[in-house]
Amino acid sequence: MGNKTGSVILLILFLCVSCARQGAIPNPDKFPPHLLSVSSPNRNELHLRFDEVIDPVKVLKETYQILSPKDTAEIRFITASTDNSKILVFYTSPLLPSEYRLIGLATDNSNNASSINSRFTASERKDSIPPSINAFPKDTLTVFPYRVTLEANEPLDTSDGFKVIHLPTVSNISYYWRQNLKKLDINFKDSSLIKHPLYILIPQGIADFAGNKTRNGLAFFEYADSALELNRVFGRVESSSPSKGPILLLFKDHDSLFAATLTDSSGRFSTAIEKKTSVTIEAWADIDGDGFFEENGQLIYAGETDALNIITNIPVPPRSLEQLIQEKP
User: Fold this and answer.
1) Contacts of 300 by beta carbon, 8 Å cutoff, 6+ apart
2) Are 67 and 141 found together in one domain?
3) What is the distance between the alpha carbons of residues 191 and 299, in angstroms, rounded to a whole number?
4) Residue 129: other Cβ atoms inside 10 A
5) How far apart are alpha carbons 145 and 135 in whole angstroms?
6) Same domain, 153 and 225
7) CA 15 to CA 11: how far, in whole Å?
8) What is the DSSP string of 279-308?
9) Nearest 5 degrees, angle CA 137-CA 245-CA 77?
10) C-beta separation of 105 from 114 below 8 A
């Protein structure tokens, strides 16, 4: 009898302990983050590797200093590494090839904080590769309202703005940058765009945080009306001397601008426009690559399907892309 009573007591204790464990609340994270290493892959980047994930949104540039006897570096942007979420990437002003001291405060997702005081040697390597940008969706026939995503292979420096030229010009547009500055979502909601193609131009000169700039512009178009009749227009533009910048093509119907595109680095272009009786195609060349177009040429397009050849050899007062797009007849 005694053995049975003891067994019952032990069973009750076991059940009570099991219930307590199931109902227990896990202990919150009370440990601050620990900096494991600091590396400098090039003159404009620092990689800070921690023992846990650090949300870059919680990292304030103002709480960090990068110091050497001859330099106080500027921290321009902070994000998480795409390869490892425990690594923070600091984009800085160009560092000197010397030893630096990194001082700051790291806070984890549970708001545990730890001070940082570390030394590293800055790299002598210079990042000289310009960023590349792609546009999505790839298909020209899409749905309305139009949503365009521009995606870069690295964070972009938007401190001087980010130019997006579009035709027709409308005002009901929203822009949304992702936190890592690699993606830009653009939404076009103006209902007047439904019956016409939408042309989008991204000029050359978009910079990364090392100051490298895109050498070519980006041009594409979208439309949502499958009944719309379009003519494919393609060919090549030749300037009087090799153009260091892209060549802009404007398509006008009785002086009314309705479409635009850019050539690639070889001067070739391909787009599609609405069918019209006669269209004037203007070509504008940026000969010296300074962002201003100083040479012009044009031809009359009557819907032919052969490749077009346009020569720009008429000097004109330099005009920016925005001026040419917004110019009134």
Assistant:
1) 278, 279, 280, 281
2) no
3) 32
4) 12
5) 16
6) yes
7) 6
8) EEEEEEE-SSSSSEEEEEEEEEE-S--SPE
9) 60
10) yes
Separation CA 326–CA 314 (nearest Å): 21
CB 14 within 8 A of CB 6: no
The Cα 232–Cα 323 span in angstroms is 26
More confident residue, 179 or 126: 126
259 and 117 in a single domain? The answer is no
In a domain, 4, yes or no: no
CATH label of the domain that carries residue 55? 2.60.40.1220
| Residue, of 2 and 285, whose pLDDT is higher | 285
CA–CA separation, 4 and 44 (whole Å): 75
Residue 269 reports pLDDT greater than 80: yes
- Amino acid code (one letter) for 70: K
- Contact criterion met (CB below 8 Å) for 285 and 321: no
DSSP string, 131-193: P-EEEE---SB--SSEEEEEEESS-B--TT----EEES--S-EEEEE-TTSSEEEEEE--GGG
Residue 75 has pLDDT above 60, yes or no: yes
Q: Are residues 173 and 269 in the same domain?
A: yes
Do both 193 and 315 map to the same domain?
A: yes
Structural domain for 114, as ranges: 35-121
With vertex at residue 305, the alpha carbon angle to CA 304 and CA 309, rounded to the nearest 5 degrees, is 80
Structural domain includes residue 108 = yes
CATH code of the domain in which 200 resides: 2.60.40.10
Size (the chain), residues: 329
Q: Which of 99, 121, 143 is the last residue of a domain?
A: 121
What letter would DSSP give residue 213?
Answer: B
Q: Which amino acid is at 270?
A: S
Percent of the chain with pLDDT over 70: 91
pTM for the whole thing? 0.83
Alpha-carbon separation of residue 93 from 45, 54, 101, 211 (angstroms): 9, 23, 15, 10
pLDDT digits (tens, 9 = 90+) for 29-38: 789 999 999 9
Query: Judging by DSSP bridges, how do beta strands 45-50 and 35-42 pair with one another?
Result: antiparallel
Distance CA 284, CA 6 (A): 97
